Amino acid sequence: MTLVQPTVEMQQHIRTELNEDVSTREKDLEHIKEWLRLQPHLPQFQDDARIMTFLRGCKFSLEKTKRKLDMYFTMRAAVPEFFSKRDPTLPEIKEVMRVANVPPLPGLTPNGRRVIMMSGVDLEQMAATVAEGMKVVLMIGDIRLKEENVGVAGDVYILDASVATPQNFANHFAKFTPSLIKKISHLCTGSISS
User: What Gene Ontology cellular-component terms does the record carry (predicted)?
Assistant: First the structure.
């Protein structure tokens, strides 16, 4: 996945929007790394670039970053249906990728946001479960955590529902159980969104 990174001018705009102070960010990074080392329930995670992504996503609030990292790793253990068996060659993963597209577009909006275009190819033929679909979305998110070198100002999601008839739309959303909705909600509000 090749993602266009922000220009130097756009990076400055993004830094301002995300409260990133180049004179203190290394200190903030070290603070979070030290905090992570002291958390026995979290894995030893020392990936500076990924930690910086969390700091940016939390607008450099150290406490918010700690909460988000804690939730990020907690959810990985608590919701194995989203985070296990993530080999893209598995039949169930291939099925999701056959019927749905969720690519982040390579470029950025003028204000530094990444656009993610979500579209279905053939909802009537979809055999994949909602959990498998969410797994693929999260796999793409993990790739982005590694690929966004200098950070972006946020995300814009566009849902192309042109293939959704009222009937297959209703059939698809009937698969969202209350338990699954709760897991997705906790994941999105606690460990992914800013």
Answer: membrane
